[in-house]
Amino acid sequence: MKYCPRCGTPLVVRPAFGRERQVCPACGFVHFYDPKVATCTVPEHDGRIVLVRRAIEPGYGKWTFPGGYMDQGETVEDAALRETQEETGLDVALTGLLGVYSFRDSPVVVIVYRARVLGGALRVMPECLDARAFRPDEIPWEELAFPSTRRALEDLLGRRTARGRD
């Protein structure tokens, strides 16, 4: 952001509320960099975990579980269900919160739910290059898209180590 949305004055960077922030020197407006919220599911069916290979950046060509950004007016649960249907063609029921993941170098907070497949057919949708159901020993660990993907799958499978929490 270059200009104040209230009065149009160029913003300057200076301390405000304990951090360096963009501030309007004319009217005092402070621009806060708020995180984006992504909601996801880890769909499970017959002992397999559904993953999708991304057809968009970031993470093009890498594997993750279905998910995406919340829209205003949605609950996190509704957004997770919508994103799962949009990316896999599957209808799922949420079976519990798996975890909430955030990283200092990322503006995204990722909320991940466990999910059970209720119906639909696993399909490759427009945002995906591939969609598959993996047995836990088949997960492509070296091809995962995001740190949150790895951490959530490790949490799901009980493989998280103390080192993984940095």
TrEMBL record:
Domain Nudix hydrolase: 32-157
Keywords associated with the record: Hydrolase, Magnesium
Domain of life: Bacteria
Cross-referenced Gene3D superfamilies: 2.20.70.10, Nucleoside Triphosphate Pyrophosphohydrolase (3.90.79.10)
Cofactors required: Mg(2+)
Name of the protein in question: ADP-ribose pyrophosphatase
Family membership: Belongs to the Nudix hydrolase family.
Keyword Nuclease attached: no
Record PANTHER family: NUDIX HYDROLASE 23, NUDIX HYDROLASE 23, CHLOROPLASTIC
Gene Ontology molecular function: hydrolase activity
